[in-house]
Amino acid sequence: MGQEADSLLNDVKTARASFEQEIAQVDTPEQLDQLRIKYLGRKGAVAGFFSRLPKLDPAERPAAGNAINQLKQFVTKAIEEKKRSLGSTGPRKPVFDASLPGTPFRIGSRHPLLQVLDEIVDIFASMGFSVETGPEIERDYYNFEALNIPPDHPSRDLQDTFYLEGDKLLRTHTSPVQIRTMEKQRPPVRMIAPGRCFRKDTPDATHSPTFHQVEGLCVDKNVTFADLKGVILAFAQKLFGKDVRIRFRPSFFPFTEPSAEYDFSCPMCGGKGCRVCKYTGWLEISGAGMVDPAVFGFVDYDPEVYTGYAFGMGVERIAMLKHMIGDIRLFYENDIRFLSQF
Ligand code: PHE
């Protein structure tokens, strides 16, 4: 064996022996780190041995390299073990520090749309209206026919309906709940029906293919249009304050006669005219009217004895007004930055 190889192997052996002695003395992580640098560092003993390899006879290099690698592995393993026994790595013992502040976590909140819906429902409940529900997948009969909208009526086109198999469709309004309620209940009826509706609208700032309505229906002896106006006014004032005014404009719906659309004075500008009401001072809410006697025919109510009023309203519209929200799509995007403001 060449002299170089001989002395290298000797040094490796000596290094291992002194390492074993030194690591036995170590009792802090800092000392251990110094030892690691001494042997495994860039300028450490192991690196030094490797740098001597090129001077060896090529035939002797593999054996010498092997010896250095063994030293390296031995040192690495011993340091790892020592580290663990010193407790500087590995699973730490859990330390409970009662003085640390707790981890804050965000409390969820009710969706702004549902908050407004709750408010609307509460107001009508306080006026003695019961809450009814109906299916979102509805039959043609309830969504159109029994509401006096015959198969060839143009309002079926206007409604831009999502049709499903057979006679099923996604309800385009909450009015079918009027029929379902009257079918199962004799007068007097005083109910509201909150729920989701669907229309084939292209989404933009004020349109969405899904939206929410609250339907209202009151049927009894001697119910008049004046009762309708009184209920709508009371509702408007509870929602937007005493100063709000209402107005009814003549309109047409196949299931009410006479029919109207009703507006609230703009709660933003008090009716003076602003951007929200497009300088008209009024905001359209929805339709209403006296139940058409033809509708009573479908549910076997005697139109000679009973009269009734019905109204609808768009929940998104009202929520947008209440909270000055400029785009209806915000309600459906589940963006936490939007939702956490309510
Ligand atoms: N269902 C009508 C609509 O969606 C609103 C309405 C309800 C009109 C009740 C009159 C009576 O436009």
Structural class: alpha+beta
Give the total of beta strands: 9
Mean pLDDT value = 91
Main sheet: strand order: 1-4-5-9-8-7-6
Termini separation comes to 84 Å
Order of helices and strands: HHHHHEEHHEHEEHEEEHEHH
CATH architecture of the largest domain: 2-Layer Sandwich
Give the biggest sheet: 7 strands, mixed
How would you describe the overall organization of this protein?
With about 350 residues, the protein is α+β, with helices and mostly antiparallel strands. The chain folds into 2 domains: about 5-90, no CATH class; about 110-340, Bira Bifunctional Protein, Domain 2 (BirA Bifunctional Protein, domain 2), CATH 3.30.930. It has helices at about 5-25, 30-40, 45-50, 60-85, 110-125, 140-145, 155-160, 175-185, 225-240, 295-300, 315-325, 335-340; strands spanning about 130, 135-140, 170, 190-200, 210-220, 245-255, 255-265, 280-290, 305-315. The chain has a 7-stranded mixed beta sheet with strand order 1-4-5-9-8-7-6, with helices on both faces. The N and C termini lie far apart (about 85 Å). The relative contact order is 0.10. The mean pLDDT is about 90.
Summarize the structure.
The chain is an alpha+beta fold and 342 residues long. 40% of the residues lie in helices and 19% in strands. It folds into two domains: 3-89, no CATH class; 112-339, BirA Bifunctional Protein, domain 2 (2-Layer Sandwich).
